[in-house]
Amino acid sequence: MEEPVCSKASGSMEDTSLGHSVNNASFSLCPSAATLYFLPSFYTLLFLTALPGNFLSLWVFLRCIPSISPTHIYLSHLSISNLVMAVTVPFLAAYYAWGSYWDLKQIPCQIVLHGITPVLHINIYISLLILTGVALSRFAILIRNTHASRPSACIRLLPSGLFSSLTQISFAHSMCALLWVVAVGGIVPVTVYYSVNEAMESAAEAKKGGCKKVCYSPVVELGGSVSSSSSITLIVLFFALYLVVLLSYVTVLKHLRRSRRNANITSSQSLLARVSRNIVVIQVVLSICMLPYHIFKPIVLTLAYDPPAPQPSSCPSKHSCHPINTFIEVKNFLFFLAALRSSTDPVMYFLLDRTFRQQTLRILGSRRKDSNKKQMVWSTTEGANQKTENMGEGNMILSSEELR
Predict the structure, then answer these.
(1) Residue 343's domain spans which residues?
(2) Partners of 214 in the β-ladder
(3) CA-CA distance, 117 to 45, in Å (whole number)?
(4) How confident is the model over 84-100, as pLDDT tens digits?
(5) How do residues 122-161 score in pLDDT, each as one tens digit?
(6) Which superkingdom heads the taxonomic lineage of this protein's source (predicted)?
């Protein structure tokens, strides 16, 4: 297998300071064993768990729950998004395994640029928006069904009609449709511009210097000026919604504390506890899976940004690794952690919703019973036939005694 670098090497000494632009042709990415082997393995495992888990979840939401709630609407759309992403995960595993050998204009690389990149980012941010909607919906249910001795100041700042709307199924349908339009309409144009203009222009510049631009490269991993600016916007959006969920949880805790002082609402304590637990689950998912990536991504962009220092005649050699090569690999592992959420979401559904939990256990329980029944019938028939052949008809009684 050929080396993922250009055939020409630069004849001058290369500056390895962090100030070089990500588009500098004199640098390439040097994937480590972690990128070449561990990341593809992790994404393969993610595919094997996310696909059946979200398919089962979507089946339960659409076919097994007789009366749906706004939370079911939000989570079913989240399952659809996760299923779409799960289908694209094998291509991402192939990208990390062989992207450093693909030419930027080859079909596999174009699939990653035009198809996989937008799907992954749409999934992450549609999930963020939906989880925020679930948290606010649960928060609204608490506000409408419990009463504290003194309402929270945060509650008084919001329109009174908002809480009733958040608990309506029609509002949940409309909100999900709007979230899809916002996510797709905001991310696809940027990724198309990035893949068609920024990445291809970098490849054209490298070609002028006699270089081969590979798919796994700084410009693909970090993007150009437009895509980097949009990344900052998405990062700001994440932290804004993260604070919304955190604020709703703090308000729930205060509401819970005030409600316990009121003897007239002791019957609603279980509802308060469930809502509080549900918002905690969402906060934990966002904190573990998505927060590290959104903290680290601005650091990488800050280290990578600098006005271009054109060197058209230089091509990267096998020793001209990009100065922030290690930071990029860390970013990719944190991005996997964000994508891992699609595999753990069915577990979150199981913890969030009692109806989903009951229906899932019923499906799994009935399948287990059917499997045990078939195995019992098969072993009974096989054992009975064998004993009949060897010892005669009288041993059939012994066989039936063993089954009891």
Answers:
(1) 33-352
(2) 103
(3) 19
(4) 999 999 999 999 999 98
(5) 899 999 999 888 888 877 777 666 555 555 555 565 666 7
(6) Eukaryota
Residue 206's identity, in one-letter code, is A
Chosen domain end from 327, 352, 377: 352
Whether 8 maps to a domain, the answer reads no
In this structure, the answer to whether residues 154 and 199 fall within a common structural domain is: yes
Strand partners for 321: 28
- Distance, in Å, from the CA atom of 27 to the CA atom of 16, rounded to the nearest integer, reads 9
Q: Is residue 265 part of a domain?
A: yes
- How many angstroms separate the CA atoms of 91 and 157, rounded? 46
Give the pLDDT confidence of 34-62 residue by residue, as tens digits.
Answer: 999 999 999 999 999 999 999 999 999 98
Determine, yes or no, domain membership for 396: yes
Q: Which residue has the higher pLDDT, 322 or 292?
A: 292
Distances (CA, A) of 39 to 92, 96, 215: 9, 7, 16
Question: Which residues share a beta bridge with 28?
Answer: 321
The size of the chain, in residues, is 404
* 318 and 385 within one domain: no
Residue pair 196/227 in contact (Cβ under 8 Å)? The answer is no
pTM, two decimal places: 0.76
Tell me, what CATH number does 221's domain have?
A: 1.20.1070.10
CA angle at 388 for the pair 387 and 393, rounded to the nearest 5°: 120
The Cα–Cα gap between 280 and 267 comes to: 22
Q: Is residue 112 part of a domain?
A: yes
DSSP type of residue 394: G
Counting Cα atoms < 13 Å in the Cβ hemisphere of 76 gives 20
Q: What is the chain's Cα-based Rg? A: 27
